[in-house]
Amino acid sequence: MSEESLYSLEMRNITKTFPGVKALDDVTLKVRAGTVHALMGENGAGKSTLMKCLFGLYSPDSGQILLNDQEVTLENPKQALNHGISMIHQELNPVPQRNVMDNIWLGRYPVTKLGPLAFVDEKKMYRDTKALIDDLNIDLDPRMKVVNLSVSTIQSMEIAKAVSYNSRIIIMDEPTSSLTEKEVAHLFTIIRSLKSRGVSIIYISHKIEEILQIADEVTIMRDGKAVGTWRAAELTNELIINRMVGRELTHRFPEKTNTPSEVIMQVNDLTSPFKSFKNISFELRRGEILGIGGLVGAQRTELVEAIFGLRSVESGQIIVNGQTVSIHSSIDAKAHGIALLTEERRVSGIFPVLSVLNNTIVANLKNYTNMFGFMRENKIRKAVDSSIQQLRVKTPSTRTVIANLSGGNQQKVLLARWLLTEPDILILDEPTRGIDVGAKYEIYTIILELANRGKGIIMISSEMPELLGVSDRIMVMCEGRITGTLQREEATQEKIMRLATQFM
Amino acid sequence: MNLSNVKSMRKFAMDNGIYIVLVLLIIGIAIKDPTFLSVGNLRNVLVQSSTRVIIALGVCGILITGGTDLSAGRQVGLAAVISASMLQASDYSRLFFPNLPQVWLLLPIIVCIMVGVVLGLLNGVIVSKMNVPPFIATLGTMVMIYGLNSLYFNMPPNNSQPIGGLRPDFTGLGTGSITALNGAISIPYIVILAITISIIIWVLHNKTAFGKNIFALGGNPQAARVSGINIFRTLLIVYALAGALYAIGGVFEAARTGGATNNYGNGYELDAIAACVVGGVSVAGGIGTVPGVVAGVLIFTIINYGLTFIGVDPYWQQIVKGLIIVFAVSFDLAKYYVKK
Description:
A: alpha/beta; six-stranded mixed sheet; 17 helices; B: mainly alpha; two-stranded antiparallel ribbon
């Protein structure tokens, strides 16, 4: 490859901050024409944010975007599309009830005007679609309804759509996350044919093998910064992992004081009816913090939601305190002393318009009613005051609407909610997501205190330092299976990453 | 072989459930009383369905975009009152406008349609510019339009008297027919109008960019926005078109019944929404067909007319209607859950 080859895209010094987080810090990305440029990094490293800036979904605080040496402003996806930038989303976003060609030409159908009416030329649309997909060698009927297509076919359709916009830059966000090997091979054929037409592909993926196979250059991101760009030929598995995780652990975690004792919960051979997770077996001890690591899509949330009764289970057992239990709903789970702090705090955690007080007691109302069914205000106030104090929630009063609290304090209220149900087993799904660093430390302290009080704690986290800093053991999952369990002493980021990508 | 037959039969039943229900309903009533299948009865069912089809097609477009329209019934009432007030026979004893000369028959109809378009645009602006949820926006305009209609209706010298004595050329639109072959074939104008409007709406939905846009908008608003569809303009047109259809429905409701009061059209919006959802229109948006809506309206008319014909207590008819709404929708949703 000659050094003079043109950059079709330059993103210079892009910075983007969200309240409390610097998501992108002075990131520069240069992509050559007709190449596949991989973008790698841990969850939360800033890859998606950077791409959303490029596709006009976010506007950066500062920095420049140049296309073929021309500076452009991209304020919305439509402008990005008109500048020849397309994005194929991780969660594909078609109109399900319409057919393939309607989706491809959405908003720009070929029309014949007749007075005020614009009649769609279905024949031309069919011909154009057919030509497009034949050219890309995609097997697809333009008249099929999208709802009947497989994920990989929808993806092919999205690629055809990108090509129909004459895109010079196509962003693919985790394109192979739900494809079979054969489908991946076909995707790579399409990618190579796009390359040969001078199209640049920005390829976001966690799958190192794939990257080494298809990418020409690789940019690695970490903590919102670009670590650097290398030619794929110069890279190896080891080098990529090192550069993705290469950071030191500082004093971001409280000292560990808990000691695991007897087994409190045992899970045997748990399998989902949809096979999203298979043959999961593990045990949890009193006073233990069991971390669950893995990449997005490892089905960790699905697993804990199944344990908590929110999803169905096909086979396997759950044994709590020596007794096999059957859990079909969150009501059963609560009765067996299990609590779950869900991943999506805003979606399935807080009741935003209710007060801190009501948010705290909502999972436990029947303990606070008298014989006539009325609420026992004094008992409630006492319980809420003491748990608010214990968890150091910063709130003007317990009557404050929870939406007015910071993310960290909201999370503490949710912890208080579950602690009032006096669980033996506390499952925390990404407990520090979207919380600033200081508040994270407090949450870790609370988790350790709870372990010291003899609770068994399961903590899902996508942040490796957090897993390493807080857990006693780390169970790593990949594609719905357990790929290994590491003791605290032996665990390293590299080992976790290797287990998390074992089947990729 | 056998199994696949069962499967394809089930798929056929799933996809055509509404039409099967319609046929079964007719067969059931005909078994009870075979005289139901007379030309006269069929004609009555079609005539009674016609204005309802026109109104339901207006609501249908809005439902497809993911919206709803509670003001439909009151818009029908307003159009009925305006058209009746301008089209009384000059020799009638109690005239709304005593000094109004005989106007061209189409003039009041055009005025009503224009009023309908303006009210539709108002709904569209409230929904898409002021971001008021359609249910609330049209709840508000529903109440306002009734107030407006009552003010008009209460103007002296009418003072809230029912408007009657309509011109024969006007009532002829609602009750007359095209006849051919010495009366062997006779099709009511109002049925022809409903069929024509159904065809026009079908063409709009299926052959034009506007039609594709409303389905895209209801099916996935985010994708529609990303693709640069003009959501504001599309919504405005949908609501304005619906307003025009309600107005036409109201005018013909006045012509058919020979009069109007400010309470005309009360509750029609709920009948129309019920007919749409029974006809397979999704209230979540993105799904709906014109033949489905027509079948939905026919089902409700046949329940009304047919069950009365065979002597079923009207209160039982209400219960049957309610059951059909609930089961039709759960059946429809089951279709989608099966796929997932």
